[in-house]
Amino acid sequence: MTVAKAKPSKAAPRSSGRPTKEQAGRITDHIVEVARGLFLESSFEAISVDLIAATARISKQTFYARFASKEALYAAVIRKGTNDLLKPAVTDSNRDGPIEATLVKLGLELSKRALAPAAIALERLVMAEAHQFPELASAYHGTGLHVREQIAGIFTNAMRDGQIRSGDASFIAEQFVYAVADGPVRAMVLSGKIVKSEKELRERVTAAVRLFLDGCRDRPARHS
User: Fold this and answer.
1) C-alpha angle with apex 41: 46 to 31, nearest 5 degrees?
2) What is the C-alpha separation between 136 and 149, in angstroms, rounded?
3) Is the pTM of the predicted complex or chain greater than 0.70?
4) Which DSSP string do the residues of 183-213 spell out, in sequence order?
5) Which residues form the HTH tetR-type domain (predicted)?
């Protein structure tokens, strides 16, 4: 694997004297952003603290004043990326109502989020280093569990209203997320075929929701 060459980024903000808390925060964010780009271009093992410092245009003293090690910086990269992508997927306004329309709207939102370049880059980074940082990989995976719990509430309400038959709401939510977002997104990313228009994405999500609901609704009794 070729080690990435240092490409000095925009210099971190500097000032005379001791930096303010705000300035220190900007420097920290700058280091995290530079490191994210380097890790994605190459690998965790191939990137050194020297390269990170040179690319960020900071001294190693500045680096170690903020991060105890390269491993600590990598953890900060993953945490920041995860936090940036965390948005409420389910709101009070889409917990009730016709289940198909609710799931299409939710599925479209989940798909758009999963296909965002930042989301794809973060997943690749986590997967590449999951063997070395299992706790971070587990925490990253755990962010999706919260979303599935919220979606399970939608299915619980739909069961209560008789829109779908009763079942394990948590399991159904897990399968729904895979059907409309995780599965298609991973397939498209691996194949390099990314849905480019919202119309095409909506059509795919709508088809997935209808197929999914066919398995959740009671079938009419057959008459001999």
Assistant:
1) 80
2) 21
3) no
4) HHHHHHHHHT----SHHHHHHHHHHHHHHHH
5) 25-85
User: C-alpha angle with apex 198: 195 to 203, nearest 5 degrees?
Assistant: 80
From the number of C-beta atoms within 10 Å of its C-beta (0-12, 13-18, 19+), residue 85 rates as middle
Amino acid 118: pLDDT: 77
Q: Which residue has the tokens 């930042």?
A: 118
Are 27 and 19 in contact by the 8 Å Cβ rule? The answer is yes
Nearest to 185 by CA among 80, 107, 125: 107
Domains, the chain, ordered by start: 21-82 (1.10.10.60), 86-214 (1.10.357.10)
Burial of 122 (0-12, 13-18, 19+ CB in 10 A): buried
DSSP label at residue 216: T
For residue 136, give the nearest of 182, 96, 82 by alpha carbon: 82
Q: Quick check: 180 and 102 in contact, CB under 8 A? A: no
CA distance linking residue 158 with residue 33, whole number of Å: 43
Reading phi first (left if > 0) and then psi (alpha if -120 to 50, else beta), residue 129 is in alpha
Would you say 12 and 26 are in contact if contact means Cβ atoms under 8 Å apart?
Answer: yes
CB atoms inside a 10 Å sphere around CB 4: 17
Candidates 147, 148, 146, 166; CA nearest to 156 is 166
